Amino acid sequence: MATDQWKLADGEYVPDPDRDTAVIIDSFFEHVAVTLREHSLPEELIVAMRARHEELEIADADLIVDEPARYNLRMTLALVAAYEFLLPRLGREEAVTVVGAAFNEPLSDMLRESTRAMLDTAPDPFEAMVALSKSREEYAFGRGFTFGRAADDDRRYLLDVHRCFYHDVLVANSATELTPVMCAFDKGWIDAIDPDKHGFRFERATTIGLGGTHCPFHFRRTGADKVD
């Protein structure tokens, strides 16, 4: 059963990039280790992946623009490190699938259930979700991302991401095919939103990773006029 280790449900969540990144990376490599056994690949590869991860962090240190970027770089490069070893052994399509499953599956249930619990208990679910988004924009994403806000009022929070640090790191490492894998991580909290129950809806028609010019994160109260 998923547990609310980030304390979203009781409203005590405070973004902690060091803690949150460590949880994601450890669960990622644990999932990859299981996959190695399933594909009859040497289990020692996980040690090599971890070592390559550290090498990449050193090599790409110049990409760090602030403290959140330090952790976002670490997380993104974990995927790159595993992918480098899986690609020649499994082929591109299967390697991307394996990396995607390892990154998204371990925490998706917990993220969905925690977010749903937060929204279910919040006096104003829309307000709670917007507050969480703004907190993460500042503390978890930082200057590696460029945000634009077409609307920010009591009815709508229309956030557009014009620059994605994750994508920039993957471009620098010739692994842009992994960007959609990172986009998919959001599905955990997106699936927690019930417009009828929580009084707002979320729309993200595309992402930079899927070929869009930007990533729209649009929150609207149910019945709010649609303004793009």
Task: Walk me through this protein's architecture.
By secondary structure, this protein is α+β, with helices and mostly antiparallel strands. It has one domain (17-221). It has 9 helices and 4 strands; from the N terminus they run αααααββααααββ. The chain has helices at 17-38, 45-59, 67-90, 92-121, 125-141, 165-172, 179-183, 187-190, 195-198, and strands at 146-152, 156-163, 200-203, 215-221. A 4-stranded antiparallel β-sheet has the order 1-2-4-3. The longest helix has 30 residues, at 92-121. The radius of gyration is 18 Å and the shape is globular. The termini are far apart.
Tell me what portion of residues adopts beta-strand conformation: 5-15%
The ordered string of helix (H) and strand (E) elements is HHHHHEEHHHHEE
Integer-rounded radius of gyration = 18 Å
* Oligomerization state: single chain
- Order of strands in the sheet with most strands: 1-2-4-3
What is the residue-averaged pLDDT? Answer: 93
Distance between the termini: 39 Å
Q: What does the largest sheet look like?
A: 4 strands, antiparallel
What count of helical segments does DSSP give?
9
The gross shape turns out to be globular
